[in-house]
Amino acid sequence: MTLLSWPLWIAVALVLIGVYLSWTAGRLDRLHARIDAARAALDAQLLRRASIAQELATSGIFDPAASMVLNQAAHAARQAEDEHREVAESELSQALRAVLGESAQVEAVREAPGGEDTTRELVAAVRRVPMARRFHNDAVRAARALRRHRTVRWFRLAGHAPFPLAFEMDDEPPAALSAAGH
Fold first, then answer.
1. If you ran DSSP here, which 8-state letter would residue 82 be given?
2. Residue 170 phi, psi dihedral angles, 5° rounding
3. Residues near 111 by Cβ (< 8 Å), separated by ≥ 6?
4. Where would you find the membrane-spanning parts of this chain (predicted)?
5. Nearest CA among 128, 143, 59, 159 for reference residue 100
6. pLDDT digits (tens, 9 = 90+) for 45-75
């Protein structure tokens, strides 16, 4: 090897390192965009579920105590700030299980005027929330794994993006409602 070839090899190595770092930064950026999109989808599904629950609570189908519990939980879930959202959504899940825990209650919803559509919408909403949450949390997990790599940390490839957080909540659907959807 001649003395002239060393600078060429160093230049090639630096270009390859630059391409790798650029590719990794782009991948991280795409993961953050995927998290944002998944979070927007999750927010939409949570809002849809809360809206349907609030509609049910004010429909007059349930006794006043059940209606009040469901209405308060749905309202709290819709109005919750980000730092309290997981708790509020979990409480809405618990209220849905309490109010729609038995098949007779689900049948009462189904037999009300427009109840067939409402039941179908509610079944779809309680099924989509766990799926949307899973997509969001999978994207968060992938971004976290990439951000833990030394290369990403050393070269600060994440920039100023906040560390992604998973959305943890109780999203267990009411058993009677799950059975109604099958």
1. G
2. -85, 110
3. none
4. 6-25
5. 59
6. 999 999 999 999 999 999 999 999 999 999 9
Phi, psi of 80, deg, nearest 5: -65, 140
CA dihedral 174→168→86→55, nearest 10 degrees, is: -30
The CA-based dihedral angle spanning residues 90, 171, 55, 176, taken in that order and rounded to the nearest 10 degrees? -120
**pLDDT tens track for 101-140:** 888 999 999 999 988 999 999 999 999 999 999 999 999 9
CB atoms within 10 A of CB 42: 22
**Close Cβ partners of 141 (under 8 Å, ≥ 6 residues apart):** 166
pTM (2 d.p.)? 0.90
Distance CA 107, CA 110 (A): 5
Q: Return d(Cα 167, Cα 5) in angstroms, integer.
A: 53
CB atoms within 10 A of CB 41: 16
Distance (Å, whole) CA 125 – CA 42: 11
